[in-house]
Amino acid sequence: xxxxxxxxxxxxxxxxxxxxxxxxxxxxxxxxxxxxxxxxxxxxxxxxxxxxxxxxxxxxxxxxxxxxxxxxxxxxxxxxxxxxxxxxxxxxxxxxxxxxxxxxxxxxxxxxxxxxxxxxxxxxxxxxxxxxxxxxxxxxxxxxxxxxxxxxxxxxxxxxxxxxxxxxxxxxxxxxxxxxxxxxxxxxxxxxxxxxxxxxxxxxxxxxxxxxxxxxxxxxxxxxxxxxxxxxxxxxxxxxxxxxxxxxxxxxxxxxxxxxxxxxxxx
Length: 267
Fold this sequence. Notes:
With 267 residues, the chain is an alpha+beta fold. Helices cover 33% and strands 25% of the residues.
């Protein structure tokens, strides 16, 4: 099957095997050395996927294989936009079927760029992508060969945080005297400290709250979240607790604001 025929048959796939990162619980993201594409790897043959995962594990990059079927395939393809990846490496069943395919060659998404910012879906592909790259390196062994520059990767995350809008979950207060108010969803760490979960998109919010969806969903930018932290008793925030689960203390959040936020947005 040539490349054109392979791409034409992508929507007809009944099952695929996606290489995931154990550090993020999401597809492993790679940067192509020649084209600089940000891509994920999808195999149509389980054996090929397991070989790829084992090769990553051999490099001390914790990986696993996730099998997707029909509806799950559609959901996975739909998440590529918010992951910030622009390409997919498809490894087919036949020898030589190894193609780097631009996402736009087989997917089309609705364009919201013409709508006011407050009416667009909350999506932060730049932040999500930088967070995935960072966590894939940050959660590797410190002596892992070829380990990336964690400091540089973390700073890219912080810059993107200051330019992002997040989703927050809230529930009505179960108190007759305060029935018009809502309480923000909080999560606790092993030490019992409360953190405010920030979701980069609706996929992340649903991933974490699928058993108990919030009654209210609030969109808040970096500055608004900082205001909420200063008003409350939380220890900080946690980015995407259902996948990357990356905590940022209140003090660190304030440092990020001071060091990376545009001047006009600093508090």
